[in-house]
Every structure is written in C-alpha cells, then in structure tokens.
Amino acid sequence: MNRAQYVVCLTLFFGSPVLAQNEAPRSEIFGGYSHNIGEAQGWNASAAVNANRWFGVVSDFGGLRATERSQDLEGTVRANTFLFGPQFSYRASRVKPFARMLLGVTSIKASATGVNESVEFSDTGFSYGAGFGLDIRLNTVVSIRAFQADYIHTRFQEEGQHNGRLSFGIVLSFGGN
Q1: I need a surface site. Which of 25, 29, 41, 90 has the fewest CB within 10 A?
Q2: Interatomic CA distance for residues 173 and 177, integer angstroms
C-alpha cells in the first residue's frame, strides 16, 4: 500500500463518525430461509452492529441439510457455519444494498446408511467468504431481505470446497434511525 492509499484509508476510518451523522440503526437482526447451490436447504441468521451509516460488524450463522435417497442407500449431510466480519452498506430512503467479508468455521456431519452398513463422518474447518444483498425497508423497524448471496469457501480433510448460498427473510432494526 503506498502512502496516498494509507492516508485515504486513515481519513475514511477516523473521519467516518463526522460523515455519518448516525442515521443508521445501532443493530440489525436477520432471520430467514437459506438455499445452498445444490440440494441443501436450511436457515440463515445474522446480527449486525453498526458504527455509522455505512460500516458495521456482522455475525452470520447458518444451518443447511441435504438428504439423498436411492433404492439401497440413504445419505444426509448437515453443515453449520459461524462467520464474522465487516459489512459495508449504502442506505437510501427505502433500500439498503450491502457487501461483506466473512471469516470463521464450518462444521459438517455426514452419514450414509445402506442395507447392512452405516458410515458417519464429521469435521470442523476454517471458512471464509464474501457476499452482498439488498434490504427493502417497510418501516423504521422491519425490512425484507430481498436477497443475500454469499460465496463461502470451506476446507475439510485437506480439500477446499466452493459453496454458494442464497438467503431471504426478515430484518429487524433497533436503536438509531
């Protein structure tokens, strides 16, 4: 990073309280449906604490489950994510597009049952990702998360997996405005 970029970053970081005027809610809680690209479905929830209009810190949690059945075999995979990171928002009158970067862990548990045999596997690994979305404000407390799209990279057994996740639901805002 050169000196000019460093000065710009410091100015934005320390000058943001002056620019923001705190017109954002202090915190936001999201809950809704989640669909992993593939067959997995489940839930997604997050809590964000906003420092100002455009910057906050988000904790994101999700649970997905996929079940596959054939004539002689049934398999189930469950994955739970625990991710944290910065979130950047642009707040217009009724819409709020946002982008975020996430770090954390994912826990996975898989099982398969056949005619005479059963196998289980579980692991927890480092995860990271990025995402963006759009909230549509209905009133000062309730918003609809029209969509949230996240890329999440997981790592189990020395192999990386690329995952796409779409979420939809309700956002509740507290404090501020």
Answers
A1: 90
A2: 9
